[in-house]
Amino acid sequence: MQLDFLRSTLHDIDKGPAELTELIDAWKAGDTDHIARIEDEDLRQQSPSLYQRLLVQRNQTWAAKIGDLLHHQHGTIFIAVGAAHLAGPDSVQVQLRKLGIEAARQ
């Protein structure tokens, strides 16, 4: 899996600044479909097991932890994750929805 991740990183290295600018523009626009195409699609197609490990499993774990925080903490909670975790069919928001928690972009 680590080799798959390294290959994926090396495969995308030439995209560099142009892809980062595209990602930032999609983030500013709230275009999670575009973010998913940029960040998730290649990984899901090229290495499904790595996609499961890096995105799906992490997002499920984070959603459960966020759910616990929301039920046991009061006040404002800040959680930072990378853009890839907030887009696509396996996003943190989708995992939260499965737990009965709605998340909205503000």
Question: How is this fold's topology laid out?
Answer:
Elements lengths: L1 H11 L3 H14 L2 H8 L1 H6 L1 H25 L19 H7 L8
- First-residue to last-residue Cα separation: 35 Å
**Total E-strand runs:** 0
Structural class: mainly alpha
Structural Rg: 15 Å
Largest sheet: none
Count helical runs. Answer: 6
Mean pLDDT: 87
What count of domains describes the coordinates? 1
Q: pLDDT under 50 segments (min length 5)?
A: none
Globular, elongated, flat, extended or rod-shaped: what is the shape? globular
Helical content, roughly? 55-70%
Strand content: under 5%
* Sequence of secondary-structure elements: HHHHHH
Written overview of the protein:
The chain has 106 residues and is mainly α. It has one domain (2-98). The protein has helices at 2-12, 16-29, 32-39, 41-46, 48-72, 92-98. The longest helix is centred in the middle third of the chain and has 25 residues, at 48-72. The radius of gyration is 15 Å and the shape is globular. The model has no long low-confidence stretch (mean pLDDT 87).
Briefly characterize the structure:
This protein is mainly α.
Task: Please give a handful of descriptors for the protein shown.
mainly alpha; single chain; 106 residues
